[in-house]
Amino acid sequence: MRIRRHGLAGLTIAALALASTALPQAAAAQSPIDALSDRYITLLLRTYPELVPLSGIEGARQSALPPIDAESLKTVAAEEDRLWQDLNGVDEAKLDDAGRASYALMADGLEAARAQRVCKQPLWSISHMTGWQVNFSRLAQAQATGTPDAREDAIRRWESLPAYVDRDIANLREGLKQGYAVPRSVVTRVIGQLDRLLALPAEQSPFYAPARADSDAAFKARFKTIVAEGVHGAVKRYRDFLAGEYLPKAREGIALSALPNGAACYQALLRASTTLDRTPAEVMAVGEAAVAQNVKDIIAIGGKRFGTSDLASTLAAVKDAPDNHFTTADELVDFSKRGLARTTKLSAAAFQQLPKQPAAIEVLPATEAGSGVPAHYIPEPDPSKPGRYMLPLDHWKTETKGGAEITVVHETIPGHHLQIAMTQELAAKVPLLRIPLVGAYIEGWARYSERLAEELGVYETPYAGITRRAWMARGMVVDPGIHAFGWSREKAMAYLVESGRFDEAAAADMLDRIAVIPGQLTSYDSGGLEIAALRAESEAALGKCFNLPAFHQQVLSGGALPLKALRSRVEAWQIATRKACAK
């Protein structure tokens, strides 16, 4: 799942305006922390419209696109500063459990947003991962329809796309003047995405989704014109700008250090991604230690299974195993769907409950295929509909069965789907939990789940145990290696390929992902290692009183919290459990 910090610089999706409030009117007796939470949610929904359908929060209009002009961004920053000041006036010690969760989420989110302003990301917004051409395609597919007001909102929003694109182009031109340029490899990927969009007739475009979902003939006709003329015209204009004007000025390297204030920006993005106060060197050191242990374990496993004695020969044996590969793309899809059924059944033993909401697997749409977009999970706020694991087929010929079943676990159960669905069930008490704010927890839980699935016997192949260790924690090394310590693309490529998880094409995809979402790759194992450490500490502290489903319930029942808040929660549970067990 791709999680970006919801500070203004952390996303390329934002909203120009919503209704005066995105939440029901606050009651007179509302607590100060609840009032601040409502203000913060309103700001987030004004700033990031994709959060409206994603979160399921009602009351917000869906009629606008992001504020990427300087004055609007100043307005958002000013409200963040006011919220930060007001939050600092709250006595956290006097809050109940739900209030402490809201406080922790706001404190972490506002700190991240304010720190990331140094990055000036609107000036280098081109991205094949989070660019408007990707996010707006999905936003169109989530657009509410079916009523006169909803149709009017859809018309207003998508008629404004050409103006948005013109503003984005102006920002990018200003960025080039100030020394901000996106890597050439990323620009090339985005041009490919735009070409695929332009090749589609209006009625097949993802931007036509609101009309496909509505039965009104007049609305369909008007919306077809909006897409065929306005949207496709804007896409063409953006594509020609990138190919003719921007690409010749794009940079060859991928390191954030090449941009103005790159070091300060990377520190801010790293803090936002991990929710921990670690320097790039500290993150890298933790990652290197974990990688060293994983290599030691892989060599031990390889010696028993293959008679090998080093990392390279063990990974080569895994890669070359005929029964570790697929013969068709459809076989990969079928294998993944069977894996979902298997992990759902076997994971039940480790939890007090599984979510009621189902999970489903869908193939990545054609407009995103071939551009390096990886597997990811899309939450569904309506519990009667499934959360979706989006499966790319770009590299099915080199994908392994061991790798594929790890990804199923990561994206569905006991990974993202389980955690996010359970968090949504808690949102009545903590509305902020409806919004996926903390990547370190969300990705960390999914990484921890990969290990848990091995314990539970979920993996069918004998290769998954090696494959998951080969890649684990390497993101904590390669990401700061590139952005803070001068690693060349060639060195980073070799490090990725060494893991056995990537061939050169897949490694190139990962490098361009690291380039456009600096720091995000460190969130997985920063969180995963922290959750694993909390479990080990709980087992040691509680001894015979330790219960795995109870531990998981404690980690999950607070929702997606910053890692420091999660630690405080688990440590309090340890104390309470020890006292209860002693009686």
From TrEMBL:
InterPro entries per UniProt: DUF885, TAT_signal
Keyword Disulfide bond on entry: no
Alphabetized UniProt keyword annotations: Signal
Keyword hit for Zinc: no
PROSITE patterns: TAT (PS51318)
Endpoints of the signal sequence: 1-29
Name listed for the protein in its UniProt record: Uncharacterized protein (DUF885 family)
Natural source organism: Sphingosinicella microcystinivorans
